[in-house]
Amino acid sequence: MSSTTVSDTDPFRLLTDWLAEAKRTEIADANAMTLATCGADGQPDARIVLLKSHDEQGLVFYTNYESRKGQELAENPRACLNFHWKTLQRQVRVLGRVEKVDPVEADGYFASRPRISKLGAWASDQSRPLAERSVLEARLAEAEARFPDNNVSRPPHWSGFRVVPLRFEFWREMPYRLHDRLILSRASETGAWETSRLFP
Ligand SMILES: Cc1cc2nc3c(=O)[nH]c(=O)nc-3n(C[C@H](O)[C@H](O)[C@H](O)COP(=O)(O)O)c2cc1C
Fold first, then answer.
1. Assuming Cys at both sites, which of 2, 4, 72, 173 could form a disulfide with 89, CB separation 3.0 to 4.6 Å?
2. 54 forms bridges with which residues in the sheet?
3. Residue 72: CA atoms inside 13 Å, Cβ hemisphere, count?
4. Exactly one of 128, 154, 177, 186 is catalytic; which is it?
């Protein structure tokens, strides 16, 4: 059994490998991850977002800074991310500080999005009450009129967050619920990664 446990000392490389496998096996959204946040009121909240890039600097997703998650992260810039790939029977947990993505980086990603997605970023007051669907459609039509071609600028409230990890857990299903749990953690963002294991 021990021969099938995970061993790696670089969490970013291991995440890259597992994501690549998940992209081959999952039917959709292998990059979907649960983002858990907790604002000043102490009430945890969670929702799915898509991982758009990752490297040694951290894991990046994009959203509306004025959304509920955006407000919670403004109040408490710490988050937990969780990937679950059913086809692989694997889970990855990532804990860390959250920072805003550089505007130039966000512009680059925004420019790569389909035109309607760009217009949607202007049209949606994400997480705020919507009286009826027609209001959203009218706002989308306004954005379409304002930006008649694909040259849609990035709304100032729409950008990315980067989770800068201090701890990863790579969980892998093993027979009889004797799962493998590999922890890669570091004491500070410039520290070396240390490896440990947890009982399942
Ligand atoms: C598969 C999937 C992917 C999603 N990706 C994103 C995303 O990348 N960014 C985002 O803001 N919301 C994304 N959402 C919507 C969020 O789950 C959520 O409904 C929205 O961001 C509002 O969350 P909030 O009110 O907690 O801020 C996604 C939902 C699903 C189911």
1. 173
2. 59
3. 20
4. 177
Average pLDDT over residues 56-65: 98
Contacts of 135 (CB under 8 A, 6+ apart): none
Residue 134: what residue type? S
Query: By C-alpha distance, which of 62, 65, 63, 87 is closest to 74?
Result: 65
Beta strands 194-197 and 180-185: pairing type?
antiparallel
Question: Binding site: what residues are annotated?
Answer: 47-52, 62-63, 68-69, 91, 109, 113, 117, 126-127, 171, 177-179, 181
Find the DSSP H helices in 26-100: 68-75
Decide: 91 in ligand 1 pocket, CB within 6 A: no
State the Cα–Cα distance between residues 191 and 132, nearest whole angstrom: 50
Q: Which domains does the chain have, with CATH numbers?
A: 2-113+159-197 (2.30.110.10)
CA distance 128 to 147: 24
pLDDT in tens, 10-54: 999 999 999 999 999 999 999 999 999 999 999 999 999 999 999
**Which of 31, 32, 13, 185 shows the shortest CA–CA distance to 96?**
185
Q: Tell me if 31 CB under 6 Å of ligand 1.
A: no
